Amino acid sequence: MKKIIDEYPKEMRALVLHDVADLRLETVPVPELAAGSVLLKIQACGICSSDKERVFVTGTYHFPTIPGHEFAGKIVAAADDVDEALLGRRASVFPMLPCKECDACKIEQYAQCSNYNYFGSRCDGGFAEYLVVPVWNLVLYDDSVPYAMAALSEPSAVSMHAVNIGNIKKGEKVAVVGTGTIGFLVAAFAKDLTDQVVICGRSENKLAYARKLGFETINLTSDSYKNVMKSLVGEGGFDVVFEAVGSNTTIEQSVDLAGNFGRIVLLGNPKKDLKMEKNVYWSILRKQKQIMGSWNSSYGSEVNDWAVVADWMKKGSFDFGQLITHRFTMDEYEKAFDLIRKEKEKEFMLKVMIMIGDEE
After folding, report:
1. What is the mean pLDDT of residues 241-263?
2. Band of residue 2 on the pLDDT scale cut at 50, 70, 90
3. Burial, 315: exposed, middle or buried (Cβ in 10 Å; 0-12, 13-18, 19+)?
4. CA separation (Å) from 297 to 155, 158, 304?
5. Are 17 and 23 in contact (CB under 8 A)?
6. What is the pLDDT of residue 1?
7. Taking the alpha carbons of 21, 25, 26, 28 in that order, is the dihedral positive or negative?
8. pLDDT tens per residue, range 317-347
9. Local structure of residue 58 (DSSP, 8 states)
């Protein structure tokens, strides 16, 4: 028999994508439990920039699909082979469903899995009242952490992963190119490792918010941004640069910001093909700069970015909640997606959160 807190629900509300730009709020059946799984009552799900692309540009891998991969909730039912002590626990979810058989999976590098599934794009995700989740994917966290904050676990783990790849040493000068949620999170984690972290971007209102949080900033739209860089860190440039946008311009600027032997970590997701100017390539060669890629997050038994983030949230090491600038109910989903779709035309925005449940 199922282990449940209350009666197992039969129906739920969900945001269902039927085609590109055809997202509807509908009532659909609640999926049945499978062996080794729990039913998560979702309380909050963040809108990722990739969700904007999925909904309005590329679509998901099939239709219909319930999008959303940044979510958290409460465990309200468990399969009969699952420990009932999990009932009532709060959890976020590692959204990748790896095959666990390929070469990458065998060494616990699940982000490089050759044959994975994924909540919110390849299978139904978190913009719903309920979701069946394998126990293996659950990230338990403290009851003191609000659901909306826990829903930031996925972008936080992605950011933590990139910072680990950057291998920042005490005293090194760090630049973060990008003023989205990921950029702010990378900066926060980097600041825990070294003293000088500078956030670089093109949006003055976001740069102003970065200064409010205690970061130095560089406006990359200014013709004199190189002079500003020199005034902050000297002629040598930055030791480590994180590129969290994914455009030709910001990648070139990231290479430009890095000094001799500088390390450049690319984690921005491009929307179209990229090219590199010859002088940028020469700068990499002649100054022996290192280019490193960062993808997704680590979720292994030895290195687990999600567990580290859960600990940060419990300890209050950083106020993750200050990155949530907008909250909407499911009924207001059109307003929420319209807001992110018109990002450049609107007021200051970082993370937009859909509040699905009625609990904090």
Report:
1. 97
2. confident
3. exposed
4. 9, 5, 8
5. yes
6. 61
7. positive
8. 899 999 999 999 999 999 999 999 886 656 7
9. I
* 37 in Cβ contact with 135 (< 8 Å): yes
Query: Which residues on adjacent β-strands are paired with residue 341?
Result: none
- Of the candidates 234, 284, 293, 231, the residue with the CA atom closest to the CA atom of residue 262: 284
Spatial distance between the Cα atoms of 95 and 217, rounded to a whole number of angstroms: 33
Rounded to two decimals, what is the model's pTM? Answer: 0.96
DSSP category for residue 63:
S
| Cα angle 305, 310, 314; round to 5 | 150
pLDDT tens by residue, 274-308: 999 999 999 999 999 999 999 999 999 999 999 99
Q: What tokens appear for 319 in the block?
A: 């106020």
Contacts for 343 with CB less than 8 Å, ≥ 6 apart: 349
Helix (H, G, I), strand (E, B) or coil at 81: coil
Residues facing residue 128 across a β-bridge: 14
Spatial neighbors of 74 by CB under 8 A, at least 6 apart, are 40, 41, 43, 88, 89, 90, 91, 357, 359
What pLDDT score does 317 carry? 83
| Cis peptide, bond prior to residue 67, ω within 30 of zero | no
Q: Which tokens go with 13?
A: 């509300």
**CA distance readout (Å), 185 to 15, 240, 257, 283, 293:** 27, 16, 20, 28, 17
CA gap 148, 279 in Å, rounded: 44
Q: Lowest-confidence range among 40-49, 134-143, 343-352?
A: 343-352
